[in-house]
């Protein structure tokens, strides 16, 4: 019997892990690419005595990142992993490019609108008897809330009941016709809704009619198809097993919809409603036609003209006085106020979605 030392185990190279770059490697490559591109554009701008174009520098930096990341992965990891990193880099680069206009828009509105918004009189005064500096957008904020609120009161019940009909009851040609009309209404220009509403109100009240309620009707034309489509898709996601369990207990269909389907989908429906409100709250053309504009407060949506924030921004920007600076500043502050209102609405939608969504498990 012979004894000896056992041979040492032989290490076998794994083709899937050998030569693998660290997971954090793309981030320094991205940072370096952006730094090189921005530095190059900064030097060119300084040499030509022009304004620094950081947007073009960011775009070139992202493109450089995609190329450099693929080359390094090709040299270290091989063709298979390089192809995977190339696709990942393209997706990341597309995300960065999509953020550029959002970041630029947000920074521009905040920088140009915040000083006037923080002025104590902007949120508490109207533009009545104001020429030049001073004044505020209180009448426009109140008008926006009233007009949009009435539009929501009109649109939400109609849109929600239409969605319930299409999902729970609709069959045959009528349902297909409603779906077709909703799809057509989704794509109509906003100014067409304003002209149609003006023509309708002019038939009953004569030419030159202007009111906040007419603006609400115009916005509801744009809002209803969004509510219908979003609510329809959310209601379709409710499992049929829940409906069948309710029917098995002898619950009628209308009560099943009210007590099972709607509570289950209330979070998604609320999100869709908030998105539809965000869609119409910034419309200018229909409100400019049917609601008009004024410098005074008006709390009655059924009488006289009513100002809204989009129209306020439009008039301040397009009809400046002898000194345009106060008007432009108020326009930026009005735009920032509108953005904050939309952000607040979306935050409310997230809270409703969080607290009212069905809880899984016990």
TrEMBL record:
SUPFAM superfamilies: MetI-like. The chain crosses the membrane at residues 29-48, 54-73, 85-107, 137-166, 178-205, 211-228, 280-299, 331-352. The keyword Iron-sulfur does not apply. InterPro entries: MetI-like, MetI-like_sf, Phosphate_PstA, Phosphate_transprt_permease. One of its GO terms (molecular function) is phosphate transmembrane transporter activity. GO terms for biological process: phosphate ion transmembrane transport. Coiled coil: none annotated. Residues 141-349 form the ABC transmembrane type-1 domain. PROSITE patterns: ABC_TM1. Keywords: Cell membrane, Membrane, Phosphate transport, Transmembrane, Transmembrane helix, Transport. The keyword Membrane applies. It is a multi-pass membrane protein. It is found in: Cell membrane. GO terms for cellular component: plasma membrane. CDD domains: TM_PBP2. Gene3D superfamilies: MetI-like. Belongs to the binding-protein-dependent transport system permease family. CysTW subfamily. PANTHER family: PHOSPHATE TRANSPORT SYSTEM PERMEASE PROTEIN PSTA. Part of the binding-protein-dependent transport system for phosphate; probably responsible for the translocation of the substrate across the membrane. This is Phosphate transport system permease protein PstA. The gene is pstA.
